[in-house]
Amino acid sequence: MKKILFIVTQSEFGGTQRYVFEVATSLNLQEYDVLVAAGQGNGELFQKLKIPETRSLELEHLRRTPWPHQIIFSIFEIFNLLKKERPDVLFLCSTTAGLLGSVASAIYKSRYTRMELASQDTQINAENEFLYPEITYKIRGACFKVWKQFRGAFKEKAVERAFIKELENQGLKADAQKQIPIVYGDEKIGFYVPDVIVNNKVLIELKRKPFLTKEDEKQFWLYLKGSEYRLGLLINFGRKLEIKRRIYDKARENTYPRVSAYPEGQNLRRSASKLKVIYRIGGWAFRDPRPCWQNKIILWAEKITAPLKDKIIVNSEIDRKEAIRYKIASPEKIIKIYNGIDINSLNFLPKDEARKSLSQILNLKPETLNLVVGTVANFYKTKGLPYLIEAAHILNSKYKIFNTKYLIIGEGKERPKIKALIKKYNLENQVFLIGRISDAYKYLRAFDVFILPSLKEGFPWIILEVMAAEVPIVATGVGAIPEIIENGKSGFLIKPKDSQNLAEKVKEVILNPKLKKQFINSAEERLKEFTKEKMLQKTKEILEN
Q1: What is the tally of structural domains in the chain?
Q2: What is the share, in percent, of the chain residues with pLDDT greater than 70?
Q3: Who has the most CB within 10 Å: 28, 121, 228, 271?
């Protein structure tokens, strides 16, 4: 069974989360063990994953725009998750998850594969040799209990007595008086008394110092080598608890590997060495509307971490070309997989019912929603919602189209700015911010025209859903949108940040029923190119290979 760990930056249900949901829930549970981990958000992704009973996990420190300390915490949170889950595939979705997750995977691989390589030359028949695991687990438990209470605050003898007492509480026999002969040639020349011998099988030396040195480890190795015992533990109750495990077998050479006494040690090494990292990006973040220096840092981070990823999935041709242009990765490493939907699974509300439901949410009379222009978008700067508000103002002031209601379904931190703009243009009775609605696509047929004024996009799922709902579209020609909509045939495409042109195209669709019908028919044909089946098939091919 192949184990897949999906990591996505936020747990709200946006485009990236939709892709993760579609792929994760489509995998055969007889063939795949799936875990979806996500960071900051409203948890809608987790709620949806409960229905098909897909395992999910919230990451405490991962968020869209982390502070420096959160970056460090996130990397090690993901590292610990890798160590715990030991996936075959780490599937990173969205920019922050991709950057931090790839660094965490590199640390994970480096740490455990290096351990494996270090032991390959000298280890003899140790692949399945896990010495005294039950005893060692109990010893480790006793160590943690004593260290947690004392934290290195007492002298070595006091710690030793507490440690022996805790070993006895664990049901182990602890001997602190065992004498081990020191042999020179064939002659016994003295005795060595180790701190503790457990169950006459494990030799233990205890330290109480800030940290262990190489000299401490070397001396301990000589003690173990000169004894009759095969397993030794060097334990330091210092600033942090250190437990060094060594195995000695006289059948081996005089240089010996560091072999974990725990069965999971070997498994971790194997898991780390075979881990594959897939990165799926829904639009490069260095193309977002932000200061140039910030985008340069993001581009630099993408290029630095690209070698840590085995495959990079983009969902548009423009993003594939951008990756090649900026030399993020080689062309053969970059794979294009369009988003896709299953039209038959979409349960749209009829037009009248959708308008009635939305009017109830807004406390309006249903008949007031006679002509509706709308959008579904998170309130991010990249969504260009201020230009929709300005277009509504132009339609009122210049084209005298007063009877239109503008509905925006979504939520986000830009809400106060949008509200201020609505107030500025005296549009409080025409533009309504509905907020976030679960399965918002169901209400699309309430719209006469759909607007997407984005400044930057990847491949917006909502465009495919609007096409399926048979609603004409006016959108900016950014991201993959020109790859979906044929300008003037299956919708109108405009330049971003152009409120005037946006208003003109909306007016043209409203006043031209024949054009509206043309857009709807053409969009129906275009949808055949973007199916859920194609998207899942191409993704599974990557997972299987």
Answers
A1: 3
A2: 91
A3: 271
In a domain, 350, yes or no: yes
Single-letter amino acid code for the residue at 167: L
Residue 278 backbone phi and psi in degrees, to 5: -110, 135
* Sheet strand arrangement including 55-58: 55-58, 32-38, 2-8, 89-93, 276-281, 311-314, 334-336
pLDDT tens-digit series, residues 44-95: 899 999 877 789 999 999 998 899 999 999 999 999 999 989 999 999 999 9
377 and 508 together in one domain: yes
pTM, two decimal places: 0.69
Q: Which residue is listed with tokens 């982390």?
A: 66
CA 232-233-235 angle, 5° bins = 155
Other beta carbons within 10 angstroms of residue 11's beta carbon come to 24
Measured between alpha carbons, how far is 62 from 231 in angstroms, rounded to an integer?
40
535 occurs within a structural domain: no
Q: Is residue 329 domain-shared with residue 367, that is, in the same domain?
A: no
8 A C-beta contact, residue 430 and residue 391? no
Same domain, 440 and 465: yes
Residues 6+ apart with CB under 8 A from 222: none
What is the model's pLDDT at position 459?
Answer: 92
And the tokens for 46? 């987790």
pLDDT at 181: 79
Q: Give the distance between the most distant pair of CA atoms in the chain.
A: 110
200-256: per-residue pLDDT in tens?
Answer: 999 999 988 888 888 888 888 888 887 888 889 999 888 788 888 888 765 443 443
Residues 358, 496: one domain?
yes
Q: Mean of the pLDDT values across residues 305-332?
A: 95
